[in-house]
Amino acid sequence: MSQKIITGFFILILLGISWIVREQWLSSPSVPAEKIPLPQYSDSDFYLSTENQQTVESPIHPIPQLKALSAELTAKINLGQQLFQDVRLSGSQKISCMSCHILTLGGHDPRGISIGTNGSRLKRNSPTVLNAAFNFRQFWDGRSHNLAEQAGQPLLNPDEMGGNREQIITQLSADPAMVEAFSIYPQGIQLKTIQDAISLYERTLITPDNPFDRYLKGDNSAISNTARRGYTLFRDFGCISCHQGRNVGGNLFQKIGVYAENEQQLKLLHDDQGRFEVTGNPVDHLVFKVPSLRNVALTAPYFHDGSRATLEEAVSDMGALQLGRKLNEEQINQLVAFLNTLSADLSAIH
Amino acid sequence: MLQSLASFLRRYSYPILGLLFVLFIILFFVAQGIESKQHIRYLSQITQLENEENRYSMELFRSRFRLRSDYDGLVSAERTIHQLLSELQAPPTYLDQERTALLQNLVTQLKQRFTEKLELISQFKSAKALYGNSVRYLPELHQQIEQATLENENSLTYAIHIFAEDMLTYLVTENNQQRSELLDRIGLYQKMAVSGQFPQEDAMEIAVTLLRHSRLILINLPLVESLLGKALVIEIPETLATIRETYLAGYKVQQQQTELSTNLLLLFTLVLFFVLIGAVINLRNTYSALEKSHDTLEQRVSERTTELAQAKEYAEKITHSMVEALLVTNEQGEILSFNPAAETLSGYTGELLQSLSVTQLLGEEVLKQHYPGGETRFHNGSGQEIPIEISRSTLTDSRNNSIGYTFVFHDLRERKHIEQQQQFLAFQSGVAEMGVTVMHNIGNIITGISGNLTRIKRSGVQLEKVVMMFESFAQQIRHHQQNALPENSTDEQTLLLNKSEAVFREGGKTLRNIIQGDLQKPLNTLSEEVIQIGNLLKLHKNESHPNSFKSTFDLHALLVDVIASRNQQIQQNRIQVNITIDDDIHQITLPRNQFMQMMIHMVDNSIAAIVLRADAMQGEQETGVIHFHASKTSLSEWQLQIEDNGTGITEEVQKEIFNFGFSTQHGKTGYGLHSVGNFVKSVDGEIKLLKMEGKPGATFSIIFPFT
């Protein structure tokens, strides 16, 4: 009897020790659910490798194909898609991300200058959301380093969507379907999870299926001779110095009007100091992110202020302002023909 | 609470031990695994960052020396570096706070440096694009200006052609001295061009373009170099090395700290393991011991079962052979088992008996708490009333809790019959003795009567004499009347008259004597004696019925009756009889006749003893005394003492006095005291001969219960 009691005490002591050990080893500083860092997904989580696919030597690379995504990622992406179209994210309850990024047209705002929730006209053209995932920075002035960061800004900007953090969270939390959809996040409904879901969705908005990428992969018939000549000019004139990589741009900053003698020559609609407004560095005066030329033929009007209505006009002005070349009509046509090969069939984009 | 815990541990000690062991092993490896996992991950993140940083720098170099380059590699490296930096911001949880803060600080510094680097690189990219484009355009512009020189001999055009060639040379040599000179020349030529020194519009346009591009080359080429140089000297690898060192130092400290607990855990795991092994061995030993003891137990059980069966059989035999009826009941009195005698006696068979309650059979009182047992009557199955004697005992379990009763009862009919016979016998004997006594008493009276009759006879002789005297006197008178002369008649009459006066005086005197003494007194006595005989016969007639029913009567009156029945002897022997009865026991309830007979026996014995003593004393006679004393001794009993001062009873005789046929007196049946004893016993009383030291005679004490 007494032996059994001793055994019992021994077990209790061992349990106590195991508890202490467990506390010491396994306990992490108790992090509230909302503070748990969001998982980061690399490009390899989303895209298939394009290695060895390209047969034509070029500083332009084909856009990778989406791979089969994990269930967790798919759930988040589906949520992001819903949020992208959700007017509850705006202050007026009337506009969504989709209002200024019309996917079926080109993922941009064809109105040139976007109009905010309160009807105010904005300064810049909404750049396309398509392939935005491949841009090295977001916004014309590159103030955001990634899509998630970007997604948060228009939401709360009073001139853009004019949303209110508390209101957005309250409204979404009142919707059982949303609460259910957000259950994929242990952090629950928060601005950062909203941004994360939208950004993950945006990473799927890519246009790998386009004629020029097929050409790069060895399909010579994918583009016309004119386009091919346009591509040669594109390379030889040095457009490709800025517009290169898989996104044909979107990976460096450049001053607009390198060869302009004065600002009037730029024929811009507003006074916009570009990246200088972000960094305050004089060298960033009139510096903008080089935009991607993917689907450029679909995303008129052009330039950061939408001041160039046609692609030809934009090409011509780019030649003069950035390359110090006066392009003739044939060259412009050839370049435009090339640029057209960068357009994808958008019917596949949801 | 503690007891239930102890019993829980006792019952589940082995599963608990096993579970704990598994838990410890899992905990041990999980804990190790978690630490290693975190450690490896953080280290690999640092290494990865180093690699990405290297890749980034390599990409930069590559793009620096290629005219047409893309920045996809740079962008993907940037993105990875950003991600890694934010991951490094959360060091492993096992580091202490101070070191965690230090690491976070270092990572923040690193982030700032990297941002700085990115800024430089983005400027580098734009400068390089402009420089590259111009460099690529320069040979074409050189050709164009050469053509213009050939077409128009113009000193400025020629000079710009030479300048273009110098620019191409500069691109090869990258001579800084030449650069400033070239820049100066650009300024000069631009001024000249603007001042309209070109003969041809197109030549001027070429010249202006060439100068612009050359200027951009001259500005951007050193810029590209310096930006790249600045970017590459930013201390990212050094900071990363510091982070690595700081982390590893923290890890080492942490490891040292946890080493003890790791070893402790290992030790406990081992101890637990051995305890478990010990427990298993113990279990095995216990099991085999258990098996052994089980076999022994089995054997013992079979032995005990046999013994038990035998014992049961024996017990059954006993109960079956018992003359007494045996009933075993539960506490409520439901009959659980019984023996055949119970069936026979109750008149109910098996199942019927089992369905009965003992109270239905023997009455309610048998289940009362303090049921003393004893004689009672019950009605058997055929409605016959049967006298029985019951004894009850309580059945208890091992904890001494009452679980039921056993009732043993037997038929008193036979005994009652014998007792009745005995009583009848005793009665007959009593009657016989009484008859003797009655005869004796009547004989005594008749002796008295005969004495009286003799006296009466004697009176008759005297009466006869008187009669004869009167008859002779009457003859004389008659004779005188027949032979009487007238002359003589007077003398003779006078003589006769004298004579008659004497005769009548004498006759009357004699008659008075007869009447007054010799006749009246015996006649009176005779009359009394006849009445006494009548009384005696009446008294004994009442006692001669074998009536054993109890009745309530006055004790004093009965004792007076008894003394009256022995009045003659008492008076003859001048015996003094005293009766003292306490107030509360005048009325008693007993079988009156038998009690009276008993008292008569007792009085007879006392008288006999007193007479015997008087004979022995011869003259120095003291008065014989018989003393009756009745008193209450307790709530349930009373006592009757009969004390005499007779010869008493010697010790050797004392043992036998209540035996049948024993008598110290010749000619007595010896049934007296025996029947007294029987009677006393039959009414649950007790008779004792008391020893009274220093006093002659005998004292009997009879205890009777109140009924």
Q: Give unreliable regions of chain B as ranges.
A: none
Ends of chain A: how far apart?
A: 74 Å
Order of helical and strand elements of chain B: HHHHHHHEEHHHEEEHHEHHEEHEEHHEE
Strand order, main sheet of chain B: write it out: 2-1-5-4-3
Count of folded domains of chain B? 4
* Total individual domains of chain A: 3
SSE string of chain A, helix = H, strand = E? HHHHHHHHHHHEHEHH
Major sheet size, sense and barrel closure of chain A: 2 strands, antiparallel
CATH architecture of the largest domain in chain A: Orthogonal Bundle
Strands ordered across the widest β-sheet of chain A: 1-2
**Class by helix and strand content of chain A?**
mainly alpha
Principal-axes geometry of chain A comes out as globular
Provide a count of the helices of chain A: 14
Low-confidence stretches of chain A: none
Structural class of chain B: alpha+beta
Question: How does the SSE layout of this entry go?
Answer:
The complex is a heterodimer of chains A (350) and B (707).
Chain A lengths: L1 H25 L16 H4 L24 H14 L12 H4 L46 H10 L8 H9 L2 H7 L8 H12 L8 H6 L8 H13 L1 H4 L10 E3 L20 H4 L7 E3 L21 H13 L5 H12 L10
Antiparallel strand pairs in A: 1-2
Chain B lengths: L1 H63 L7 H17 L8 H55 L3 H19 L2 H19 L6 H33 L2 H86 L3 E6 L4 E4 L1 H7 L3 H5 L3 H5 L11 E6 L5 E12 L5 E10 L1 H70 L3 H58 L6 E5 H11 L1 H6 L2 E7 L5 E5 H26 L6 E9 L4 E8 L6 H4 L17 H11 L3 E5 L8 E7 L2
Parallel strand pairs in B: 7-9
Antiparallel strand pairs in B: 1-2, 1-5, 3-4, 4-5, 6-8, 9-10, 10-12, 11-12
Helix pairs in contact in B: 1-2, 1-7, 2-3, 3-4, 3-6, 3-7, 4-5, 4-6, 5-6, 11-12, 11-17, 13-15, 15-17
Give a brief outline of the structure.
Chain A is mainly α and 350 residues long. Chain A has helices spanning 2-26, 43-46, 71-84, 97-100, 147-156, 165-173, 176-182, 191-202, 211-216, 225-237, 239-242, 276-279, 311-323, 329-340, and strands spanning 253-255, 287-289. Chain A has a two-stranded antiparallel sheet.
